[in-house]
Specification:
There is one protein chain. By secondary structure, the chain is of the alpha/beta class. Helices cover 45% and strands 14% of the residues. The strands form 3 sheets. Strands 1, 4, 5 and 6 form a 4-stranded parallel sheet that branches. Strands 2-3 form a two-stranded parallel sheet. α3 links the parallel β2 and β3. α4 packs parallel to α6. The protein is globular, with a radius of gyration of 20 Å. The two termini are 16 Å apart.
Amino acid sequence: DRRDYAASGKPMKTALLRTCSRLGLSRIARRLTGHGVRILAYHGFCDGDESRFQPMLFMRAQTFRARMQRLLESGHRVISLAEAVRRLEARDIEPGLAVITIDDGWHGIHEHAWPVLRELELPATVYVCSYYAQCQLPVLIVFARYLVWRSPLPLVALDGLAPGVAGRQALADRAA
């Protein structure tokens, strides 16, 4: 099944991260990189089943909230991107500084991430692609992949979609 969560590789990544943590590698990495600012980059936040579709791109609001709370509980101090740049230029870095950035400017940021950030009083920088914002269009490649992923059809006819595009395509064949 192309909707299989295990096929995403996320359980393997989670197991690897837990193993690294148990071995103390996470603590060593923090010690080695403590002189910098951690930049946490996020993309999309779910309105539905998007986290099952692309778990590395979309996150449930509950997961985001838990990560933000864990970040604060671990002693990190979240600062704005502008403050991080100023501090880096002045070489005024203290351990545990973090910046939150969110790419693409999708609706889920406003709907799901913003309430968490506001409640926890965390600054974040949101990057918005002006083309898609002005045109009020979804990011075509992500939208098309999502439609194919959601489709119950085993086959789609491509005739007439675009010049030079014809034939039929099996939707179960992810590589094609």
